[in-house]
Write a structure and sequence with these properties.
The complex is a heterodimer of chains A (about 260) and B (about 230).
Chain A: E1 9-18, E2 21-31, E3 36-40, H1 47-54, E4 62-68, E5 74-76, H2 82-91, E6 93-96, H3 100-103, H4 110-120, H5 126-139, H6 156-168, E7 174-178, H7 186-203, E8 206-210, H8 214-220, E9 223-228, E10 231-237, H9 238-243, H10 248-255
Parallel strand pairs in A: 3-8, 3-9, 6-7, 7-8
Antiparallel strand pairs in A: 1-2, 1-4, 4-5, 9-10
Helix pairs in contact in A: 4-5, 4-6, 5-6, 6-7
Chain B: E1 4-17, E2 23-36, E3 40-44, H1 51-58, E4 66-73, E5 76-79, H2 85-94, E6 96-99, H3 111-121, H4 126-139, H5 156-168, E7 174-178, H6 186-201, E8 205-209, H7 213-219, E9 222-225, H8 229-232
Helix pairs in contact in B: 3-4, 3-5
Classes of the chains: A alpha/beta (about 260), B alpha/beta (about 230).
Chain lengths: ~260, ~230
């Protein structure tokens, strides 16, 4: 990382209102290439609203999200045409949902779940697609003999790993993750976290990761934003925010974690 | 001819405990410190004098309220107090190493991976990075059978030696050491002293905390006296 790089994403004065209620308000930040940004806060603090606004799935009430595409052009996401936005979502971005059922097609095989993402970006050779899909299932530790099984027959942890493979197979530059380890047993969580950590480092991905689990962000995020009542109350280097929190709410959040 | 690698100017650090009646705890007041290449400065003072707080501030793990921490990075100067997170991470990747008191273990990650990771992050090939990691682990007497295991179940002394190997894997120009010899036996303590002396010979600027007087004698070029803030006021 050098200091002169151009941000991959620039977020300016972003707000989303639900009528008179605030979803998120006055959000401002830059995301740099290769950076993993963690967003923490309690339920209802606006984390998921913000994530949805960033990933072009929820139109903000005001403000802008500017993304630098592969050609180096800055695209204002909500000013761009629908087709342009769709193309970006398919080729440049991935979204890992908390519930794998929201990110997978449960009634087609694991191999097809991964393979269809390759077809969506223009690959046509069946043998190549199958080979790449199998390779990716291996990388997320799903045995080769499960390629033709439907995700319905998978455990929760396997479904989540399959969802990650489906998102990463097409080589995205930016991945949005909403509580990727939520709802999993701790032993399964550890395996998933280790996997995500290695994939993010090896592929040099940028990511925005929403979670309420501070241990998860310590492990995965370079940088942290703490949200409270729709606003960012503190942001900075992950270990600095966790070890020397400045804001009253962050101090409460950090001191409320039970040590096993 | 001395060449400074780290210059601390007028550094102030307080903790404000918002959820405990807004108590304000001052720890550092107007710290000035310059560390040159090849020099080991040992922070010296009683418990509670702010030694660890200063060291953590130098690593940008703590956030000072005022002052500058300038570090020589990529032939330029960067102020860690004002730097953006991605800039701090770049400094930590290439220029600034830190050996903490305790190893933070990550589930499922092997000892060899932990020690070689800082090198791999610099773009060094896995094989070369692992060779260096193996050499350090051998020197610090971690049995080869343990290299492929995650250190969660290791003893305190073993974890600390893995931590030291991790901290010394990259030849950082500036190195911060927080009691690296605290839980080690005499042989391993000597190895750590050797590692520090070798690093100084390479031109590394070192800031450390050592409670062990013998070790301090062997590595320190000078002491930086610190006293509890209430006395300094």
């Amino acid at each position: 990382m050098t200091t002169l790089r151009h941000p991959l994403m620039q977020v300016r004065d972003l707000s989303k209102m639900y009528g008179a209620r605030t979803g998120c308000r006055d959000i401002d930040f830059d995301l740099y290439p290769g950076e993993v940004l963690g967003i923490v806060g309690e339920s209802g603090s606006g984390k998921t609203t913000l994530l949805n606004c960033l990933s072009a799935r929820l139109e903000p009430t005001s403000g802008s999200v500017i993304y630098q595409d592969r050609t180096g052009a800055d695209i204002d996401i909500y000013q761009a045409s629908e087709s342009r936005r769709r193309l970006l979502m398919r080729t440049d971005w991935g979204v890992v949902h908390q519930n794998p059922k929201d990110g997978l097609r449960m009634r087609v095989s694991a191999g097809a779940n991964v393979g269809e993402r390759l077809m969506a970006v223009g690959q046509r050779h069946y043998g190549d697609i199958r080979e790449t899909a199998t390779d990716w299932l291996g990388r997320v530790e799903i045995a080769e003999d499960r390629v033709d099984d439907k995700p319905l027959t998978f455990s929760g942890g396997m479904q989540q790993r399959l969802q990650i493979a489906r998102n990463l197979v097409s080589g995205p530059r930016l991945v949005f993750m909403d509580e990727p380890t939520g709802g999993l047993d701790v032993s399964v969580q550890a395996r998933l976290l280790d996997l995500l950590r290695r994939l993010v480092t090896d592929l040099g991905l940028s990511a925005v990761l929403v979670t309420h689990d501070l241990a998860v962000v310590r492990l995965l995020a370079h940088r942290l934003m703490v949200m409270h009542q729709g606003q960012v109350v503190e942001q900075g280097l992950t270990d600095q925010v966790l070890d020397d929190p400045q804001h009253a709410y962050t101090q409460l959040l950090v001191s409320s974690v039970l040590q096993p | 001819m001395t060449s400074p690698l780290l210059i601390v100017e007028n550094l102030h650090k307080t903790f404000t405990l918002h959820n405990q009646g807004g108590v304000v705890l001052p720890v550092l007041k107007g710290i000035d410190l310059t560390v040159n290449a090849g020099e080991c400065v040992v922070l010296h003072g009683p418990s509670g004098a702010g030694k660890s707080s200063l060291l953590r501030s130098l690593y940008a793990n703590y956030k000072p309220q005022q002052g500058q921490i300038r570090i020589r990075h990529d032939s330029d100067w960067m102020d860690l107090v004002a730097a953006a997170p991605h800039e701090i991470l770049d400094v930590r990747k290439k220029t600034l190493g830190y050996v903490s008191q305790f190893l933070r273990v990550i589930p499922r990650v092997s000892t060899l991976d932990i020690v070689s990771e800082p090198l791999r992050r610099l773009g060094i090939a896995a094989e070369q990075a692992e060779d260096k990691a193996r050499a350090l682990l051998s020197r610090l007497r971690i049995p080869e059978a343990m290299w492929s295991l995650a250190p969660a179940t290791f003893s305190g002394g073993e974890q600390q030696r893995v931590n030291i190997a991790h901290g010394f894997s990259v030849n950082y120009p500036v190195l911060l050491l927080d009691e690296p010899t605290a839980s080690l036996d005499a042989e391993n303590r000597q190895t750590v002293v050797d590692l520090i002396i070798e690093a100084k010979a390479r031109g590394t600027a070192i800031v450390g905390i050592f409670h062990d007087a013998d070790v301090r004698e062997l590595v320190a070029d000078r002491l930086f006296a610190m006293q509890a803030y209430k006395d300094a006021a």
